[in-house]
Description:
Layout: E1 2-8, H1 16-25, E2 30-34, H2 45-50, E3 53-58, E4 66-71, E5 76-80, E6 93-98, E7 101-107, H3 117-133, E8 141-146, H4 170-182, E9 185-186, H5 187-191, E10 218-222, E11 230-235, E12 251-255
Parallel strand pairs: 1-2, 7-8
Antiparallel strand pairs: 1-12, 2-4, 3-4, 5-6, 6-7, 8-10, 9-10, 11-12
Amino acid sequence: MTRIATFNVNGVNGRLPVLLKWLGETSYDVVCLQELKTSDDKFPIEAIRDAGYGAIWHGQKSYNGVAILARGRDPIERRRGLPGDPDDTHSRYLEAEIDNMVVACIYLPNGNPAPGPKFDHKLRWFERLVTYSRSLLDERSVLCGDYNVVPTEIDAVVPARWLGDAVFFPESRKAYAKMLSLGWVDAMRRIYPGKGIYTYWNFSYRGGYDRSSGLRMDHLLVSPSLDENIRDAGVDVETRGWEKPSDHAPAWLDLGR
């Protein structure tokens, strides 16, 4: 069994106690992290190695940033950054080979305020991802990350709250659906086809979090050759209630051999 998780940590150094506690209480073989918010030289590699993981990372000071961790070994880097835009300097895509499997870590642009230039950028980035993902379809591939898209109404506790948000715009959902039409399999929906599953909640001014704001924006897509290997999937919701948590909770899947 291979256990793969994706987690938008919302600042890897500021949330390091949460990350290390979570790594220590779980047994994931591969972990994809997003929104590191740190330059490459400030990435906490020693603490992560002490937790039993090798890592590669693609940082950016104060914004964005992605990393791939592998338990007991070092991921083999294959690509950093998406093709298709030589002017794209954001750290949003990282790809590695781990145990004859391709693992990509994705942090898609949020796109707010929408409509507007940021939303246009989001859609262009999404189209580049869709186009590039075709080259990975015939491999044993998993595309993990914060896609900043809520695919359907079932993926929001209160859909009406998000009608004016880029993550819920029809164009965003259409781009995600286009990926699925290529053959990518949404692992969470394979296990829970009709259940409300959420990976994100707003911060609450009173402490804790607003459960009515739940969204599913963190996704694990697997290539067709891995579809029959999906054994389980879920969300480590309890981390959202820890001290100084991220606004996201880790999502995960189990793949049989």
